[in-house]
Amino acid sequence: MQPKSNIVNLPVYQPGKPIEEVKRELGLNEVIKLASNENPFGCSEQAKAAIQSEIANASLYPDSFSTELTAAVADYLQVDRNQIIFGAGSDEVILMLARAYLSPGDETIMADETFPQYKHNAVIEGAVVIEVPLKDGNHDLPAFLAKINDRTKIVWLCNPNNPTGTIIRQDELIAFVDAVPEHVIVVLDEAYCEYVTDAAYPDSLALLRGRKNVLVLRTFSKIYGLASLRIGYGIGHPEVIRFINQVREPFNTTRFAQAAAAAALADQAFVQSCRERNAEGIRYLCAEFDRLGLTYFEAHGNFVMVDVKMPSQQMFDGLLRRGIISRARWTHYPTYIRITVGSREQNEKFVQALEQTLQEAAVLG
Ligand SMILES: *Cc1c(COP(=O)(O)O)cnc(C)c1O
Q1: Are 122 and 98 in contact (CB under 8 A)?
Q2: Is 338 within 8 Å of 307 (Cβ atoms)?
Q3: Distance CA 227, CA 234 (A)
Q4: Ligand 1 site-directed mutation target among 221, 229, 338, most atoms within 8 Å of CB
Q5: What is the pTM of this model?
């Protein structure tokens, strides 16, 4: 028995280490996970109440078309209902897109250090993956353009980019999309858009108008704090959305996720407060990195990619022994870790652990 040849060497996804596992392995009482860009402030109380009320309906299949949630999101974003598709996380929208649009031999283009699911799903479909090196942590859009040809099907732009946190600006994005041929779908993965405060961040929904080949991805996993419920969505041209819908599993999102997402969307006060506390956390972390003489990429999401000037695995282990789970071992950034912005108290504990680990490794004098 042999599986499809293109998946034989496919790595199993390595998630951030779970808190309970680290507690057990290291005998620690308190462990702080700053590894998966989860919301340290949880989710809206209204979302929790919505989950509670759905328990009575647990035996019933969910609405396959997420009708109420679709209406709520469409109204909120001022787009038509047939422009939206929901997935079990935006991860599943990425999977469905690849399934609907990528055939063996098609080409697909992405940055060389970005969200791994683009490559993962493209490889499963047998597509040829073309990776464009980041330039100082940023998408190099002219280099992307140079790689586009008749075989190109999808270009993936992660904005802000995970893991570097950098953004593609409005003017460069418009110039790029205008130059891309119409047979190529430009995917804008905006998982962290609600955190961005920079005025140069693109208005992707305006970019969608009058264009068939732009698809925006968003999620309730990050600022909305609903990662465990698995719900995200794509916004695009009705025709593209219809094709993606054709490959969607009938009951891909749960009642709990649909109800919680609608309630979370309605509670923009919670979102605003998370955005502000996150911006404060970024300012604090960057000031501490400056004090320690460490450089980092401009951070626009809820995480910072910082150069710890030592092998990242060694820093990861040092932080772990002190009860902090971070993310390390980046292919192109061997001395960087990615750290999620936590609560003020978590950020302070992280900085303390960071400084101790740097001292132990004699990176600091
Ligand atoms: C977290 C993340 C997602 C996917 O999140 P879901 O939980 O599947 O909605 C998508 N893209 C990027 C860049 C992310 O960081």
Answers
A1: yes
A2: no
A3: 16
A4: 221
A5: 0.97
Please answer whether residues 223 and 270 qualify as being in contact, where contact means their C-beta atoms are separated by less than 8 angstroms: no
- Is residue 156 lining ligand 1, measured as CB closer than 6 Å? no
pLDDT of residue 365: 55
pLDDT at 9 over 60: yes
Centre of ligand 1 from the C-alpha of residue 121, in Å:
14
The domain made up of 45-266 has a fold known as: Aspartate Aminotransferase; domain 2 (3.40.640)
> Which structure tokens are listed for 257?
């996720």
5-42+269-364: CATH topology is Aspartate Aminotransferase, domain 1 (3.90.1150)
- The maximal CA–CA distance of the chain, rounded, in angstroms, is 62
Cβ proximity of 330 and 134 under 8 Å: no
Residue identifier of the C-alpha nearest atom 14 of ligand 1: 191
Strand ranges for 263-326 from DSSP E: 303-307, 324-325
Q: CB of 93 closer than 6 A to ligand 1?
A: no
pLDDT grade for 15, boundaries at 50, 70 and 90: confident
